[in-house]
Design goal:
alpha/beta, Luciferase, domain 3, Rossmann fold, GMP Synthetase, Chain A, domain 3, eight-stranded mixed β-sheet, seven-stranded mixed β-sheet, 20 helices, 29 strands, 33% helix, disordered N terminus, AMP-bd_C_sf, ligase, long-chain fatty acid transmembrane transporter activity, Long-chain-fatty-acid--CoA ligase
């Protein structure tokens, strides 16, 4: 470390051959400098934005460029002026309901312009908006609405949404429900139609003085967790965080001259937070599509001149599964920004669609930090080098952990233990002082127990506070890779279509053992030859601790509505032959292959582990 510091101190004056030597000794330095430049740009932009709220930025754009297209949807162009008029109607309706700053309204609307102008109209009054996942039904839907404690629920157009609400209307009391899209049709019992109010309410401007007492620390909206570990929880998105989310794509140069193609759900932190808020931050134009369509994706981009696209999870897999087209690389897209892109898919996307830059990030809705890979390096999710850690106000660390609880292991003195380079570690980030109130970080609207589970207290010094992402990274030469990278390595096999890596408990053993759920390419089988090839591959490519102890063969990959791999159900079922009807295999070192797991093998296998 002393040598490193001396080199860095002397680097300021290094020129000519000295700079070349420095680059030779530290080849990763250029990536650090790239992130430092991007970080400075983001911070400066964010600090300028924090002088006002998102809605203020939007209203300024309305004044400066009223006829500029803000949204393209179903080939229709919606100008800033038109969207503002619709937002003013919403604002005046909400005002007639007696709503004002710091009240809450829940909103369940699909990807359409009404989502945007309904949100903006409520923001004009300083009303916090709960983004309800429009795919939820029954108990989960009731829980999500009531968890934000709203006075009203605004439901978007469509029979499916109307039916979902009617089924639970008796459980939503005292929340008043207004439906969009009914037109002249009378509303069902228990709900009201918003359409007559939108027709008769004048688009009179709302004075900004209505929200003059709001600060950037007040709540802008609630974005919910996925609910994979229980009911969805409303994460508090302050105006500060909303602006910060929108600034993420400033790292790849997002500006008012860009056009973002948004197919990710707006209720999600990627589509709504990074994409939509990013457009509000920068004045970029939005191409909005109600649902992702692999067959229309690139034609939409070409038709409307998309320059920036977002992805998450397995979205790109659906695109490369489409038949090759001579127009695949004919587009204006300069950058794809997202997370969860596997290395093998990344390489195919780069080859086939020729996007100049793919920028991968890691973060979470509730989290306090972000990692960025701006270097077009497939498989990596960002950097955590010594230089970057010294410069960051809220450092990020990888620590030793218990697989069973996803909690840090403490040393004898009660402190977290940093991992060595190449060793798997639990990802933590320091919680900024400005978000801590009464000794805690209020990340959720409710659920104090869930909040405490995400926090790590006294991690390295008395009184410090860290956020626990629950994700395991591997760090080598400053580059971070997650369990996704393990899946990347396994997916390199010619017969493997998808690999989902997770941990399972072993009785009598500490922590968790690795398990992978595989899906195969069409026409492929997992026979003796493939099992042997899988065994040789993981032994050659992975250290002992990272080799999957169990393999589950799935008919189809299990993913969420936002194209993320589902792990919780797979983890809970583990290798239990009573629960799992799919073929199971275990790492058979005696035979140097993966062998079919039976009750007889399982008893002998587990007894050797006790």
């Amino acid at each position: 470390m002393k040598v490193y510091q001396k080199v860095m101190l002397g680097s300021a004056g290094a020129v000519g051959t000295g700079a070349v030597a420095l680059q030779t000794m530290f080849p990763w330095l250029k990536y650090d400098l790239q992130l430092i430049r991007a970080g400075k740009k983001m911070i400066k932009f964010r600090d300028d934005m924090l002088k006002s709220l998102l809605i203020d930025k939007f209203e300024k754009m309305v004044q400066e460029s009223p006829r500029k297209t803000f949204i393209i949807f179903d080939d229709n162009h919606y100008t800033y002026e038109y969207v503002d008029q619709m937002a003013c109607r919403v604002a005046n309706i909400a005002k007639s309901w007696g709503l004002g700053p710091r009240d809450c309204v829940a909103m369940m609307i699909q990807n359409e312009p009404a989502f945007i102008w309904t949100f903006l109209g409520l923001q004009k009054l300083g009303v916090a908006v709960a983004f309800i996942n429009h795919n939820l039904r029954a108990h989960s839907l009731v829980h999500s609405v009531l968890a934000a404690d709203p006075g009203y629920l605004i439901v978007g157009a469509g029979d499916a949404l109307l039916e979902a609400v009617i089924e639970i209307i008796n459980d939503l009391s005292p929340v008043k429900v207004y439906i969009q899209g009914l037109g002249c049709w009378p509303p069902p019992a228990g709900v009201y139609s918003l359409d007559p109010l939108m027709v008769t309410t004048l688009p009179v401007a709302i004075s900004p003085t209505v929200r003059q007492d709001l600060t950037v620390e007040d709540t802008c909206c609630y974005i919910y967790t996925s609910g994979t570990t229980g009911n969805p929880k409303p994460s508090i998105i302050s105006h500060h965080k909303a602006i910060s989310l929108g600034c993420c794509m400033v790292s790849v140069g997002l500006s008012s001259s860009d056009t973002i193609y948004l197919v990710l759900p707006l209720y999600h932190s990627s589509g709504g937070g990074i994409g939509f808020f990013g457009a509000l931050d920068t004045g970029a134009r939005i191409i909005l599509r109600q649902k992702f369509s692999a067959s229309h994706f690139w034609s939409d981009c070409r038709q409307h001149g998309a320059t920036v696209i977002q992805y998450i999870g397995e979205l790109f897999r659906y695109l490369i599964s489409q038949p090759p087209n001579k127009l695949d690389a004919v587009h204006k897209v300069r950058v794809a920004f997202g997370n969860g892109l596997r290395r093998d898919i990344w390489l195919e996307v780069s080859r086939r669609f020729q996007i100049p830059q793919i920028a991968e990030f890691f973060g979470s809705t509730e989290g306090t930090a972000l990692t960025l890979n701006l270097a077009n390096r497939p498989g990596a999710i960002g950097r955590m080098s010594p230089l970057l850690n010294k410069l960051e106000a809220e450092p990020k660390v990888l620590v030793k952990f218990d697989y069973a609880t996803a909690q840090p292991i403490r040393s004898k003195n009660g402190r977290c233990i940093r991992v060595a380079v190449g060793e798997p570690g639990l990802f933590l980030s320091k919680v900024p002082d400005y978000v801590i109130s009464n000794g805690t970080f209020a990340m959720y609207r409710s659920s104090p127990e869930a909040i405490e589970q995400k926090l790590v207290r006294d991690a390295f010094t008395p009184g410090d506070l860290y956020f626990n992402y629950g994700d395991v990274f591997f760090c080598g030469k400053g580059e971070n890779v997650s369990t996704t990278e393990l899946a990347n390595i396994i997916s390199a096999l010619s017969f493997v279509h998808d690999a989902n890596v997770y941990g399972v408990t072993i009785p009598g053993s500490e922590g968790r053992a690795g398990m992978v759920a595989l899906t195969l390419h069409e026409g492929c089988n997992l026979g003796p030859q493939e099992l042997k090839e899988l065994y040789d591959h993981v032994c050659d490519q992975l250290p002992v601790y990272a080799r999957p102890l169990f393999v589950r063969l799935l008919d189809a990959a299990v993913v969420t509505a936002t194209f993320k791999q589902q792990k919780v159900q797979l983890m809970n079922e583990g290798y239990d032959l009573n629960k799992v009807k799919d073929p199971l295999y275990f790492l058979d070192t005696d035979r140097a292959t993966y062998s079919r797991l039976t009750e007889k093998h399982l008893v002998r296998f587990l007894s050797s582990k006790l």
